[in-house]
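Forum > Structural Biology > Help requests

Title: Can anyone predict the 3D structure of ABM domain-containing protein?

Hi all, first post here. I have the sequence for ABM domain-containing protein but no way to get a structure on my laptop. I'd be grateful if someone could post the structure tokens.
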Amino acid sequence: MSKSPDSASRDTAATSTRAPFRNSRPSTKHPSRSTPCTTPRRLPRRCGCPSASPEQPIRVEESTVSQVSELVVIAQLRAKPGQGPELLSLLSDLAAEVLRTEPGTLRYAFLVEPDTDPLRVTVIEGYASRAAADAHNTGVLTNYLPRLLELLDVAPVTVELQPAEMKVSTDDEAAVARLSV
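Reply #1:
Sure, ran it for you. Structure tokens for ABM domain-containing protein below:
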């Protein structure tokens, strides 16, 4: 998944000491394909391309982790027995419309517990603000809610979360990004 410069800066707000970009030479051809390797030279390359020699390691002194989402909602859904495929189909349609019409919805991920009947789905929703979450709850979702509730065995269980401010010390700047949702 590629990130725009704006979304990359929202992923982590890190204060770091690192060597400036020293490699300005042209991209090296990747050995297994005819296209240039796209791994940034400042990151460790695990692809085996000729320019995979490590640069000076990046040292992240004290990183303040700032999540992509200002508000995260976790929703747990349980389909009626035998209704799992229809629930997933409805959620697929909903997700496509949400992603198309709600720019404040930064994350909308669906995870299932494998081999369960009734199917259990966990939805991870990330919003840029409280207003974006409210817009989701009063927007596209309302068109799908009646049918969604018909397919569920019990009412959805939801919890709202906000990012924790924390300091992390690590030698791996890329690892800091894994701390965000």
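The CA atoms of residues 63 and 168 lie 5 Å apart. Strands lie at 13-17, 59-64, 71-78, 105-112, 120-127, 157-161, 167-170.
Shout if anything looks off.
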